[in-house]
From TrEMBL:
Pfam families: PfkB
InterPro entries xrefs: Carboh/pur_kinase_PfkB_CS, PfkB_dom, Ribo/fructo_kinase, Ribokinase-like
UniProt cross-references to SUPFAM superfamilies, sorted A to Z: Ribokinase-like (SSF53613)
UniProt domain Carbohydrate kinase PfkB: residue ranges: 42-298
Single GO MF descriptor: kinase activity
Protein name: Ribokinase
Similarity comment: family membership: Belongs to the carbohydrate kinase PfkB family.
Keywords (A to Z) from UniProt: Kinase, Transferase
PROSITE patterns for the chain: PFKB_KINASES_1 (PS00583)
Organismal lineage: Bacteria, Bacillati, Bacillota, Clostridia, Eubacteriales
Length: 309
C-alpha cells in the first residue's frame, strides 16, 4: 500500500439495483415500479472511496467482496477512480451483497440493503490490515458491515492516530451504540438522529438541539447532520451553524449523502475548516442530485468547478 494515503474507508461493498415509482410507498401500499436496472453503484464503502479518489484524494478501501461479478465490478469501479485496493479482499466463500434503490418522481428515494453479515470483513481481518494503513489521516466507517466490526475499526483507527468519522447507517431503532468518545466526527441524518435519542422517527423536534444532545450523550465532539432539501447543520468544536442546500433540480437523491460526506472529508484533507467544507460539500451534493447514479456521476474537482461556472 502507498504510504501517502490520506483516507481509509472501512465499510460495505455491493451492487446497486434501481427502479422507479410514482411516489415512495407507505406501509401496506402495493406500488407499481418500472425501469428496473443495475447502475454503476455500490455500497457506502465503495461509493465514498471512489468519490474521494475522483476528487484527487489519496484513498484506500478496506473491505470484502466475493469472487463474482459484484466483486470484480467493485475492483474495476474503485480501481478506475484511483482507490488503493491493497486491502480489498475477494473471498471465494463470500457472495457480494446487493442493494435496491427505489426512486420517486420527485427525486426522493428509499434504499433496501440485502446485506449478510457473513459476507463482511471480520475483526481479525481488520486487525491484520488496518495497522498497514497507520499513516492515514482519517478513517471513515459505517454500518453496512456489522456494527461491532465497524466500531472496532473506529477504535483501532483512533489507536493508530487517525481521526475517526462514523456514519452509523443503516441504523435500527433501539440500537445501543454506547460511548462514542473515540469518534471524532459523527455523520447522521434526521432519522438516525432521532433513533440515537430514542425518539419516534415521525416526531418533530429541534434538530440543532438534537445534535447537541447527541454530542453530550455519546461524547463525540463533532456532529454533522444532513437534512436533504433542508441542507445540513453542525454542532462542532469550531461552533454551531446551518448550511443551506445549494439550488439544483433534484432528479435522484441516491448517493447524495455519501457524496456530501466524501466531499466534506476531502475538503478537510485540503486544510479547509469544517464550516467551509460543509459549504463546498453542499455544492457537490447539488451536482449529484441533478444526475442519476452514484459512482458514474461522482465528479472530479474540475468537473464540479466547470458545472458551477
Amino acid at each position: 500500500m502507498a504510504s501517502n494515503i490520506d483516507v481509509v474507508v472501512v465499510n460495505g461493498h455491493g451492487l446497486g439495483e434501481y427502479c422507479n415509482v410514482k411516489k415512495i410507498p407507505v406501509v401496506g401500499e402495493t406500488a407499481k415500479c418500472w425501469n428496473r436496472h443495475f447502475e454503476e453503484d455500490a455500497g457506502k464503502g465503495t461509493n465514498v472511496s471512489a468519490a474521494i479518489a475522483k476528487l484527487g484524494g489519496k484513498t484506500a478501501f478496506v473491505g470484502k467482496a466475493g469472487v463474482d461479478e459484484g466483486g470484480e465490478l467493485g475492483k474495476k469501479w474503485m480501481g478506475d477512480a484511483g482507490v488503493d485496493l491493497t486491502h480489498y479482499i475477494m473471498d471465494p466463500n463470500v457472495v457480494t451483497n446487493l442493494g435496491l434503490c427505489i426512486i420517486a418522481e420527485d427525486g426522493n428515494n428509499m434504499i433496501l440493503n440485502f446485506d449478510d453479515d457473513a459476507n463482511a470483513i471480520t475483526i481479525p481481518e481488520l486487525d491484520e490490515h488496518l495497522p498497514q494503513c497507520k499513516d492515514a489521516k482519517y478513517l471513515v466507517t459505517g454500518f453496512e458491515i456489522p456494527i461491532e466490526t465497524s466500531l472496532h475499526a473506529a477504535k483501532k483507527g483512533k489507536e493508530l492516530g487517525m481521526k475517526v468519522v462514523l456514519n452509523p447507517s443503516p441504523l435500527d431503532e433501539g440500537t445501543d451504540l454506547g460511548d462514542l468518545s473515540y469518534v471524532d466526527m459523527l455523520f447522521i441524518n434526521e432519522t438516525e438522529a432521532k433513533i440515537m435519542l430514542g425518539l419516534p422517527t415521525d416526531q418533530d423536534c429541534d434538530l440543532m438541539q438534537a445534535a447537541r444532545d447527541i454530542r453530550d450523550r455519546y461524547h463525540t465532539p463533532n456532529v454533522i447532520m444532513t437534512l436533504g432539501s433542508d441542507g445540513s447543520l453542525a454542532v462542532t468544536e469550531e461552533g454551531e451553524w446551518e448550511t443551506a442546500v445549494y439550488p439544483a433540480k433534484c432528479i435522484d437523491q441516491c448517493g447524495a449523502g455519501d457524496g456530501f460526506l466524501s466531499a466534506f472529508i476531502w475538503c478537510l484533507t485540503q486544510g479547509k475548516s469544517m464550516k467551509d467544507a460543509m459549504t463546498w460539500a453542499s455544492r457537490y451534493a447539488a451536482y449529484i442530485v441533478s444526475h442519476t447514479g452514484t459512482i458514474c456521476v461522482y465528479p472530479t474537482h474540475e468537473q464540479l468547478e466547470e458545472f458551477f461556472k
